[in-house]
Amino acid sequence: MRKASLKLSVGVLTLVAAGVVSSQAAARPDAEANGDVRLKGVRFFADETDLTAPTVEAVAKPAPVVATSSPLPAPRSKPSKGAASAVYVARGTAETVAVSPSEAPKVTRPRRSSTPAAESVALPAITLAQTDATAQPLPAPMVMNTRLSDEQLLKAERDRLNGKDNLADSKPADPPLPDDGLGEEGAFITADEVTSPEENIMVARGKVEMRWEGRLIRADEVRYDQTTGKTVATGNVQTINPDGSVQYADRLEVDNEHTSGTGDRIAYIDTEQSKLFANKVERLDEQTNRLSEALFTPCQLCVKNNVTQEPTWHIQASSITQDKKHRVVIYRNAVIKAKGVPVFYMPVLWHADVTAKRSSGFLMPKPGFSGRRGATLELPYLWAVSPYTDIIISPEFSSKLNPLLYLELNRRFYSGDLHSRFGVTNERFFDNKGRKWGDSATRGFMLVDGKFDINEVWRWNFTAQRVWDKTSNGLVSWSNDSNGTSVSTPIAVNQPISNFYERYKVDEGFPYAGDFSSNSRRLISQINLVRQTDTAFFSASLFSFQSLAIAGQHRLSSDLASSPVLYLAERDQTQPAVAPMVDAYWSPDKEILGGRLTLSANAVSIIRKATPSTDIFLAPDIADPSNRGSVDTARANIGLSWRRDMVTPGGIKVAPFLDARHDEYYLRDYYKTGYTLQTGEEDTRRVSRSLGTVGLDVSYPLLRKFNGLTMIIEPIAQLALSPDSQVEPFLTNEDSNAFEVDATTLFKVNRSPGFDLYEGGKRLNLGLKTQFSYDSGLRISTLLGRALRQNPEENFYRTYKVGNQTYKYDASSLANTKSDWVVQAEVDTGRGLRLYTRQRIGDDATIRRSETGVSYFSANTQLTLRHQYNNTALVGLKNSYNLTVVDGELVPTVGYHDLQLFGQHFFNSRWGVSGQVSRDLLRERWLRSEASVIYKDDCARFELVYQRDETALLQQIPGKASESISVRISLATLAPSDDDFVNVR
Prior knowledge:
16-stranded antiparallel sheet; 4 helices
């Protein structure tokens, strides 16, 4: 979900004068009518229990003393039961004066509120910036509770109060504590002196400080008029709140009823370093607050040559009005500035008030430019429907295309979350040059997911993922730019198009959501019910698929140099539906025969509308593939596994294991409609089989410590014995098409990833692990191993038919008696440099599969280089028709050969560059390339990005890459970055 952050002034718009500085605290007895009582260095505090100090007759009625820029308690008309005694202690003396509880006022809790957004007229808070020759940021406010305190702000403020100019010579003030022992209604006040110059007037002067409800409140002078109920705080008024936010003011004035008040030259810093200034703050009534000449920025304010520098960006307005009755904040003459330069102006701007719980408003616009869509601008608007529901409406306008409307809905329930994204437009097809062809049609996508807890052990989730983007009629019209001719070519009706996401640059089109996800271009709609405890697991699922992988292509003319290519996806009816799939596992709490026992059950039903691929049949030569129908499959199986881990006195680890399973299959509609069944043939098939494996894992870890080095060498062996598997001629292989031998499967009992295949025969798996750990932080780990078997595993062969001849080949390297060598190594220097390699190497030293990479991370630099190679493809590009066959087996060919590079480097704290390239070494072309120039500071990140894409999904015309230039902007509190490098390895 995108962040909704029209924060601006919302978090602080309830006036300083309205709440943070409006209430009053009474802490001292009234002076006599004609007296001029003066107490030097008076401290006031209240307690819930009576103090035993003697009552002084000379002191009569209590009179309030106010010293604050934050909400202070107001006196009640009559004291509450159990009112506290007020105690005054003169500084430097032992004199104590007390009054009776009946005469001491009870401290009341004020209404809580927050504060405003504002403008940069010369404010006293600005003078807190450091004045070094080079630009330095303002000290951050002190942060309390779980946040780290920054004592520079308190030190600077104490220096300011003491009249010091040299910030380095003073000591930081002690931060107020969340719980200072005063309780919820107690207060502690200190001042150099408290006087009553005339009747009903009380004045506290000289470093007035008050601790109340965790706040630390300071002022040079506080004056309270008991007759009018007016309180005035002047001179360096400062409040540090329990959450770490800080407020400053030159002068604050509020009446006794808290219905009106004003503040001059207000500054506010919240816990996220956002800053708010206003030349004047007014509380017009209980529902309306107004700021004049206001400025808001989350950026650091720096001083250079005694001049405060312009922040990276800020918003200023001639006035900001908070209407709490209608829950709206209204800006007049709002201007957004970047480095002091106006970039956006609105005569009137408004958004929801903080009292509305959620804030609706526009998010950061997203501009861009590309050859296929022209200039683009996305304008997202957040509608905060409720505290638990928000909707983001984002129309995207393009100079070459019709608008595309994005809609995002997020809702939180008491038991879980719902997320949904939609996109819809009405447009024709277009290529990278923006040329259009075909008919206009409604096109779009839907991505919905939700997950919910039923109770502590039951949960359910779902996804609904779909793209609507198909051909519309049997002819496609296209205009050739080179000669102006128009041609029409036939094309299949309602054929899905594969590249909607790429044409419109839709991010995260294949999200990882739900219990099942795909690593290919496949969308999954699913619903899952799960129960999980410490000893049991149960799940029931329904799901269907939509593939956006390229299944074919269509050229619009015979002109190969300029004809656009329409890439077509697989038809939806070729994708199966799973209805349902059930998994269940249970392990008892206690050990069985000293080991761990697990019982399992699994069932699945797969429904098809079209003939499946020949790859799902174990024996394609049994019957003519052209006669096969849309085979529906149902399977149920039960199984158990047992394993016990033991260590001999000599340190050898031994683990015997047992795995057993029984399967029942039912196949329906095996032959195509209209096929004439031969004698003995049936259109339904039943298959029953029982499978089992027993074996032993043995390893001998050897550890040796040297000076500065710890070395571990561990030889590993696994012996597994199973009956030889039998090829079932009519059995389908739905769930075990893709697997291979590598470090993750080398020592598995059954290396088939699903249930349709089961590894049989006698096999021995051998490996050697090493690890070298140095005290310097350097760590080196390696693995070398391979799998051996007595007889070939026929079920693991895959087939390829050319004409009437069927060939087989071993893609997994587990079908023959010897597998490829598994080689893996990793070096981590502990200083930001990491190297790794994973290899599958044949006996002839041929590399079958390889992934090698190096990465480096430092404070200013990130670098990742990765090389991938796959020589296990069934048919390669360079020998698709000239297949190599050795001893009846196909020789695998190169499937892909890629090189990827990502780098980012900052030359200083502000400026940097980044780049990402991907090279297809097999086809000898660049795939995706991106380069950007970056500027960032404490509150903003700007990127100028150039992108080039030569993948088939975007190329559309051979040799014509897709290019675009865009700007990524991330402003603190306003919008997140679209930087998509977070998942780079």
